[in-house]
Structures are given as structure tokens and as C-alpha cells.
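Researcher: Please predict.
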Amino acid sequence: MADGLLTKQLSFDLLKPLITSPITSGLNVAVIGPPGVGKSTFCQNLLVDAYKAGLKCIYVVTGNPIQTVKDQLTQLGLSFSPRQEPIIFVDMYSWLLGERTTERYQVDNTSDLAALSVVISGAAEAMGEHAFLMFDSLSALPAYNTEELCTRFVKSHLARMKKHGNVGIYNVEQGIHKESFYNEIRASFDTVIEMKLLETEDDITRMIRVYSHRGTHTSKWFKFLITPERTIKIT
């Protein structure tokens, strides 16, 4: 798939209120926010859009059983069957249960970042150039490694993503890492999206903004809603 076609297809209607320029090959996006704000749902919507646009997709799963994730994506319009697997999954969850996965790609020990790199690279090579990757979430890595090692892994991984023209979106939990880790994330990614929750006595409002995009910074926050169908609306 040519870069021009990739740029044309990946308009990402969901991002249009936030980012006016097109999403091009080699762009990697970090989504930072507190637990429960909707990061995974937001990223899953983008992954479904990428798949429907014709990109091959990889989903790195760290926090839920693969079947749960498939059920969530089915709700968003994807179809899974023995003959049709629209997404390659990298299973980083089953090992926590002491189980083997039925997926082709599994990470048996999250503390082994070298092995993780090999597995993700293998999945990416199977997909070829210009794939879409969702990593949910990077915050699983510092639980088993130093944050310094994790930032090195991220930088090396993103370099390979750019080399192959892949587009990636990565969740990061807010409030559980050192500030230096978040600074490294903000400096390493082309685009950083931030989310927050505003709580009142009667309601909780989800907010979203683009902290940075290709070197430019913005301060405007938008409201975003998660519908009962798990789609996203930004106003």
C-alpha cells in the first residue's frame, strides 16, 4: 500500500475534531489518561477504522483475556471466525494465568523485553509494510522492568515502526509512573493525546485533548462520550 493511499484512507473521522492534518505512515500516537477514562475503547475504535480502511492490524493485549477483547471488537463491528481472523493478537495476558494461548503470538514473560521485541517484530513482519498496531497498554511493562529499560524498549520499537511505515497507538496509565517516564513518552511519540475525568456531585465528564502533534502543542480540551455501543463521540 503506497504512502499516498495510506494517507488518504486513514482520515480517522474520530480524530478530526482533534487533529486536522492526516495520519500518515510511520506516525505513532500515545494516549495518556487515568484508569477508567476510556483509553482502550478510544483506541479500539481507531483500530476498527484502520481495519475497515484496508490496513492489516496487530493488537498487543496485556490486561484482558483475548476472548474479552474479541467480544469488545465484535461489538464495534468486526467479525471473528475460524476462517476469518481480521487481527493478529499478541497475547501478553494468558501467561499471567499460567495458560497457553490459542493465538499464534504469545509473550511468556513480560520481564523479558528482548523476547517481547522479537514476538512483536514477528507479528509485524507477518503483516508486512504499513500495518496498524495497538498496544494496550505500555504501563504493563514497568511492572516487571525498570522504567529506564522500558523507555529504551519503546524508543527501539518505535524506530522499527517508522522504518516499516507502520501506524501505532499506545495506551499509558496516568498516575502510576515517575514523571520522568511520562516525559520520555511525550518526547518519543509523534502525537500525544491526553484524557482526564472531571467529577461533580451529579456526573462524571470525560475530556480529551491533543497535548502535542508533530512538534506543535495545543491546550483546548473537548468532551467525549462513550455510547452504549462503545463508539466514541467528541464534541
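Model: The radius of gyration is 17 Å.
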